[in-house]
């Protein structure tokens, strides 16, 4: 009989392993800072009490400025020029994240441009999915099938704020007041 305290193994814990195991060099730069239309996408990830989460990781996927879904290789080895549409960034100790990207274009005529987001964090057994919509085209936002399926008072949690410098701010709230709408996809366990 063991009298000492048993220590959990990594298979019995939920991180925080994301912050050092998955980020890679320039993973947060979908577009290089030299790109003439580069924008900063940033925000903070909050828990249900409204406190920043210091060890989350976000992945984003998006179309390019013309609405074309990139098929170029290089997502994990950045060359500084090729837009691959994929990025990964860990939050800092204050729960803040930043990406350098471009404004995505609509993938079809009249569609609302968006950025797909996956969130990994301590305490989450499975990743969470959401979207970031651009705020400018109210007609496209009103006719978007996904937004239309969400109660009107919850839709703003999926729409970024445009900042005076052209950047986008998008905070993610896991629970509580202003909880971000998270999505479920068929065939993906949550």
Automatic annotation (TrEMBL):
Keywords in alphabetical order: Dioxygenase, Oxidoreductase
GO molecular function list: ferric iron binding; protocatechuate 3,4-dioxygenase activity
Keyword Oxidoreductase: yes
UniProt keyword annotation of Glycosyltransferase present: no
UniProt domain Intradiol ring-cleavage dioxygenases: residue ranges: 38-108
SUPFAM superfamilies in the cross-refs: Aromatic compound dioxygenase
UniProt xrefs under InterPro entries: Intradiol_dOase_C, Intradiol_dOase_core, Intradiol_RC_Dioxygenase, Protocat_dOase_a
Family indicated by similarity: Belongs to the intradiol ring-cleavage dioxygenase family.
Name under which the protein is recorded: Protocatechuate 3,4-dioxygenase subunit alpha
Protein species of origin: Tersicoccus phoenicis
């Amino acid at each position: 009989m063991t009298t000492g305290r048993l220590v959990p193994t990594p298979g019995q814990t939920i991180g925080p392993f994301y912050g050092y195991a998955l980020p890679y060099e320039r993973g947060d730069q979908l577009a290089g800072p030299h790109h003439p239309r580069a924008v900063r996408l940033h925000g903070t990830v909050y828990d249900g009490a409204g406190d920043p989460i210091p060890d989350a990781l976000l992945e984003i996927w998006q179309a390019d400025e013309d609405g074309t879904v990139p098929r170029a290789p290089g997502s994990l080895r950045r060359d500084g020029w090729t837009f691959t549409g994929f990025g990964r960034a860990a939050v800092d100790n204050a729960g803040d994240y930043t990406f350098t990207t471009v404004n995505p274009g609509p993938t079809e005529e009249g569609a609302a441009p968006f950025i797909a987001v996956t969130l990994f964090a301590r305490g989450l057994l499975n990743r969470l999915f959401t979207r970031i919509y651009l705020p400018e085209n109210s007609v496209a936002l009103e006719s978007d099938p996904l937004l239309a399926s969400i109660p009107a008072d919850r839709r703003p949690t999926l729409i970024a704020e445009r900042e005076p410098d052209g950047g986008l701010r998008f905070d993610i709230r896991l629970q509580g007041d202003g909880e971000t709408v998270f999505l479920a996809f068929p065939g993906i366990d949550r």
